[in-house]
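## retry 2 of 3
previous attempt timed out at serialization; input unchanged, resubmitting
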Amino acid sequence: MRKLFNLFFTLLIVFSANNISAAQKTPDVNALRNYIEEARQLWKVPGMAVGIIYNDEIFLLEGFGEKEYGTGKKVDGNTVFAVASNTKAFTASALAMLVDEGKISWDDNVNKHLPWFKLYDPYVSENLTIRDLLCHRSGLVTFSGDLIWYGSNHSREEILRRASFLKPKHGFRSEYGYSNILYLAAGQIVEVVSGLKWEDFVKTRIFSPLGMNESHTTISTLNLKGNTALPHNDVDEKIITISYLNWDNIGPAGSINSSTADMLKWLQFQLNEGRVNDNQLISKKNLNEMWSPQTIQKVSAFSQRNWPSTHFKSYGLGWALMDYHGKKVISHSGGYDGMISYSSFIPEAKLGFVILTNKNSSLYYPLAYKIMDTFLSDEDKDWSKIFHELITKNEEASKKEEAEKAAEKVSGTVPTLDLKSYCGTYTCDIYGNVEVELIDNKLSMRFVHTPIFHSTLEHWHYNTFTVKFPDVPSLPSGKAAFVIGMDNKVEKLLIDVPNPDFDFTELDLIKKE
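## retry succeeded, writing output
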């Protein structure tokens, strides 16, 4: 019996020593650095910056590639990028501070603070809470209403007032539907309750105490000739530089611009459980509330095959949540025009990392898993290669689908009416007015409140015309169809530009008399 005990004790010591050794091993920073650069080149991303903190120290803070394609101006750890929807965690944190101060509750009804704000369903308007705003469970489908604000001159209040015309696709609190507009409402509550504009609250209560001196809440304060990355897109298989688009009207949902160095300060603040030096800016209780599942998401069959150690996915308050290699992962991604970003921290592993890129690219996704594998396991999959091949196949399938749709064109047809009959103002409550005019004997369409949405309408067949927005190269071509009534007059305009971000079919554009 004693021999058996001694054997068990010896094995336990060896097993524990191996575990301690594994837990304390330091990943090879040069190998990871080389992997990131090779991945950047494979994905043809002009520039990016990656920062990693581990055990309260900076493990990696480095730039890769160029701030602007073809210029040779190098990215570094202080280069500023748009972080887009990573802003949402800052807005949720601002509200957490107000909860700590007893000025609001997570479960306050929104109409207690914004009595004029309504949604389509009166019951939802009466019962919608601050918590509902932050965890995407209002009943709206993902990105519903984004055409109200994107590139438009609608004010923040006007955007929220027009949101009352958005029809829900899900039951209240029954499904996940990612909403930028409801985060705008959350930011308006910050203003009403604190007496500070959302921008000023974030700067004074978060940026300043954390020393995030290179962070901005608006592009209007960016020095585009300084250490700032410029956004890029792929157009006709070429990389082009595009202009920054002002997102101030949706600020609380996505207008922050920051550097990797500053974002690491933000992640260290999370890992320090809301403390900066001796100051507890957010209570542990409310951080835990933000990091706790609020709206459940499905783990897809694809995820189950590729990441069998992930058993749950959900959204908290300003953060996405899941498990990976036995650890809880708290993260958020951000998509801006020509820039994609990702931030993540894993409290149990004392690990945090941020990935900022200056092109519309999914590169952050395989890099995130590579970083997590490097620190949390012995897995050594080449996620960059795996996902690049997958996306390439998807792009080829999309081109085939486009070719099949092009074959649906009925040749030899002409519009039912003379072109002047299609001209006029088309309007809907959700957005406002769209004008159709005759210019150089061709129809031209423009969204009155969104200067970047304008297009010549090329005849396709019957009363359908092609749409292509030259100022928004990331959007594919689409169709505009005029509906002719029984009196042989145009009644409405239907627009469809297939893309994952903006639902043009939400707009019920009726022609004004």
